[in-house]
Amino acid sequence: MRSFLIALFILASAGLIFSGYLSATKLFTGTCAFNESCPYFLGYPACWYGFAMYLFMFIATLLGLVRKLPVATVLKTDGAVSLIGIIFTGSFVVQEILQSRLTGALGLSTCAYGLIFYVAIFAVSIIGLRKPGLKSL
To answer: CA 66, CA 78: separation in Å to the nearest integer?
Structure first.
């Protein structure tokens, strides 16, 4: 089960670094990274919400790695938060597709990359939860 936690930690760390860069760029320069449009939700840049979700998953997974949270709790937490992230980011990606703005300086838009990380975290969480021998909450 530790391998699932390590995979989640790597994915959450990568998402946290990526969204952190996007958030810091917006916060300190007032512009969006990579010369992309910056989607907003409730008056705040979407990347700030992404940063909060990745930070939450990072902390939960780290607590699992140091055995302060049960593995099942980490998998359920990361699965639930990543599902919220899929819905949240997916809505922006759909808008980008409809407006023909899915491509960006990195090939895809930053929202599309965020969606990929959320889907990967969700998949690892679900596969981990389906493993036999997992202690429930």
So the answer is: 16
- DSSP for 8-22, written as a single string: HHHHHHHHHHHHHHH
In sequence order, which residues have a C-beta less than 8 Å from that of residue 86 and are 6 or more positions away?
Answer: 115, 118, 119, 122
Read off φ and ψ for residue 37, nearest 5 degrees: -70, 150
**Residue pLDDT, tens place only, 89-107:** 999 999 988 887 777 666 7
Residue recorded with tokens 């940063």: 51
Pick among 3.50.50.60, 3.40.250.10, 1.20.1440.130, 3.40.50.300: CATH of 2-129: 1.20.1440.130
Give the CA angle between residues 3, 73, 64 to the nearest 5°. Answer: 50
Buried (b) or exposed (e) across 106-124, using 16+ Cβ within 10 A? eebbbbbbbbebbbbbbeb
Amino acid code (one letter) for 107 = G
